[in-house]
Amino acid sequence: MINDIAAKQNVNPDLTTVIPLILTSDKTHLFGSEKVKAQLLFLTIGNIFSAVRFVPNNCAFRLIALLPLLDSTIVT
Fold this sequence. Notes:
It is built from 2 helices and 3 strands. By secondary structure, the chain is α+β, with helices and mostly antiparallel strands. The protein has one domain (19-76).
């Protein structure tokens, strides 16, 4: 696969590196309220061992987006 990518980009395959990226999300309540919710989007590198990646103090995940979840009911 690396050779195919390098051939398409006209690059020496010995000098290329593929870095796997993992995106994950989590739904949470904001401000201690049951009404205000958000979807958090995190990014990490896939070649970090999962035993290291999932330890909270290692900071392997980075928050890249906080998407507010809107209420689906329409108030008239």
